[in-house]
Amino acid sequence: MILNAGTLVTMNDEREVREEVHVVVEDGEIVDVADGFASGEDVVDARSEVVIPGLVNCHTHMYALPIRGAPLEASPRSFYEALVDIWWEVDEAFTMADARLSALGSCKEMLEGGVTAFCDNYSGPNTLPGGLDAVADGVAQTPIRGLIAFETTARNSRDEAMAGLDENRRFIDEEEGEYDRVTGHYCLHTLFTNPEEVVRECVDRATADDRPIQLHLEEGLVDVHRSIEEYGERPVHALESMGFFDADVIAAHCVHATDEEIEILAENDVAVAHNPYSNTNNAVGIANVEKMQDEDVTIGIGDDGWDPDMFETMRTAVGIHKLKQNDPSGFDMATALEWATIGSAAVMGMDDRIGSIETGKRGDFVTLDLGPNPVLRESAPYYVVSAASRADVTRTIVDGDVVYERGEGVHAVDGEDMAAVGAASADLWDRI
Questions:
Q1: Residues carrying CATH 2.30.40.10, the chain
Q2: pLDDT value at position 42?
Q3: 3-state SS class at 225
Q4: What are the φ/ψ torsions at residue 395 (nearest 5 degrees)?
Q5: What homologous superfamily does CATH list for 2-53+357-410?
Q6: Which residues does the UniProt record annotate as the domain Amidohydrolase-related (predicted)?
Q7: Burial code of 25-43, b = ≥16 C-beta within 10 A, e = fewer?
């Protein structure tokens, strides 16, 4: 495949933006990025468009899709109430069909919005064992890249937590090889829903399997308060004492992490999945990404299952960090695009393969029609973040294959599939 690009935002180490170039992909890999436009039958024509790397969503929950529009009676006044009154009711009602169809519907949405890779954490305790197989089947119906895990929790019992750990290991050992673009990892829901013995067991398994662990860390103050009550210290200190950072860790949220805790995360090479829209929606606060940047923490961006438009998630990040600084120039807008591409790829340990457009990387691209205004090389990343939306995505390309085209949809998903997704959501609403 050859892709002609009017403006190419590479996100390489130099954050280079090039004009009037073509990208050559062979066997899914970028082999050349050259000046000038190419011609031929296999050329994808984006000469009047902006091309960016495939977006990477480094923290999501695909099982959140069925709750959109649900007639919920709960009116939580805190993050913890939202967990108890909504999410824990939802995940316990999930079936195998819900797991598969929510994954399928979410992957379709992500591809339509230019997301070519994601990291998901699934919670459905009554679908074990086998829940991750259902998730993987939904993902694999589409050509997206997925890193999936079962969200381990001991909120009801230690046995439930061990079943979650067993599910992750079972998928990695027995099922992962059946999928081309789906891989497994480990996930602990939070420190406050998992005792020390479960934390240590998760570390042992993840390090033995050479897989990362994702953890919701200090998303709400309940995490901080419970840690102090149980361990006499804040969560990062407690986790460090447990040897948690011996594993490769993806820490989601980190809203309430102190400067000292952020320094500990940096010292242990912990990557952070920032979820700006979710944090504002749950009213938990704003993560101190400025301190994280000062400490060279690897930062990516996720939607936490809330917003199918990653461009809106990027803009939320820009808005909240400017507001936090009370300064309209207090946050570099292009940073949000970095987080959504090469940053999130690095969080997921995949930056050697995806996240930028350069030789040796996979051929994952998004083509954008940004309208009539000229696109200038020096301002192109800012234009993308400030003005683009999923409606502007004309194509999503994975491994050099066009897998979504505006007006045609995601090639592997049809109307019957989406009707099944909607019907499953309605059935779930009746059960909860």
A1: 2-53+357-410
A2: 86
A3: helix
A4: -150, 145
A5: Urease, subunit C, domain 1 (2.30.40.10)
A6: 50-403
A7: beeeebeebeeebbeeeee
Question: 300: number of CA atoms within 13 Å, CB side?
Answer: 32
SS3 category, 344: helix
* Cα–Cα nearest to 368, from 126, 137, 47: 47
Instruction: Determine the straight-line distance between the first and last CA of the chain, rounded to whole angstroms.
Output: 48
CA 369/CA 128 separation, integer angstroms? 44
Residue 13's SS3 state is coil
Number of neighbours of residue 8 by Cβ within 10 angstroms: 27
What Cα–Cα distance (Å) separates residue 376 from each residue in 33, 50, 143, 182, 312?
Answer: 19, 10, 32, 37, 22
Strand 55-60 and strand 145-152: pairing? Answer: unpaired
Rounded Cα distance between 390 and 185, Å, is: 28
What is the CATH topology of the domain spanning 55-347? Answer: TIM Barrel (3.20.20)
| 59-79: burial string, b at 16+ Cβ within 10 Å, e else | bbbbbbbbbeeeeeeeebeeb
The candidate with the shortest Cα–Cα distance to 37, out of 24, 47, 29, is: 47
Q: What is the DSSP letter of 175?
A: I
Task: Give average pLDDT by consecutive 10-residue segment, the chain, 432 residues.
Answer: 98 97 98 96 95 98 95 91 93 96 98 98 96 98 97 96 98 97 98 98 98 98 98 98 98 98 98 97 96 98 94 97 95 97 98 98 98 95 97 98 96 95 96 89
Most distant CA atoms of the chain, gap in Å: 67
The interaxial angle of helices 196-209 and 158-170, nearest 10 deg, is: 10
Residue 387 token pair:
């003005």
Q: How many residues does the chain have?
A: 432
